[in-house]
Design a protein that fits this description.
The structure is a single chain. The protein has 7 helices and 2 strands. It has 145 residues and is mainly alpha-helical. Strands 1-2 form a two-stranded parallel sheet. Helix 2 crosses helix 6 and helix 5 crosses helix 6. It is globular and about 40 Å long. The chain starts with a helix and ends in a 6-residue tail after the last strand. The N terminus is likely disordered.
Length: 145
């Protein structure tokens, strides 16, 4: 390869690298941006009652000697610096406790939507997705001002 061709490759390669690094990053989203729909949360409530309430209790009260509530200040404080993707992934991989990993991505998203709803996070126009990497861009700041 002659020097001119090598120079062009280096020049264009460098410009492509600069363009790739200079591309603006998407601003992190918040659950308060309306990241789930009411219908999705309603479906999630049904799934939650079926798969989660026996350990976590209803969102109105804890089950004695069982897992913690998922809509109280302890939950909100524990998850405030984490992402929806982390919550989704944890539920998908480890829940329900007696059948870990059996929830479909859709069912998991519905349960996460219900948990957000129970934490008084506003619903939006678009359903919560099922892609963990995209969900990791949404901050879990429920209960925060």
């Amino acid at each position: 390869m002659n020097g001119f061709v090598v120079g062009l490759l280096v020049l264009f390669g460098a410009e492509a690298g600069v363009a790739a690094t200079a591309a603006p990053q998407a601003a992190p989203r918040s659950v308060k941006d309306g990241v789930y729909t009411t219908g999705q949360a309603n479906a999630g409530k049904t799934a939650y009652i079926e798969k989660c309430a026996s350990c976590h209790g209803t969102m109105a009260g804890a089950t004695p000697d069982m897992a913690p509530l998922l809509n109280d200040y302890v939950f909100q404080d524990t998850w405030k610096n984490r992402s929806v993707g982390e919550l989704f992934d944890r539920i998908r991989q480890t829940m329900p406790q007696n059948e870990p990993g059996t929830l479909s991505p859709q069912r998991t998203a519905e349960i996460v939507a219900y948990i957000l709803s129970a934490n008084e996070v506003p619903a939006g126009e678009r359903a919560l997705g099922e892609e963990v990497e995209a969900l990791k861009q949404i901050r879990m700041d429920a209960g925060q001002p």
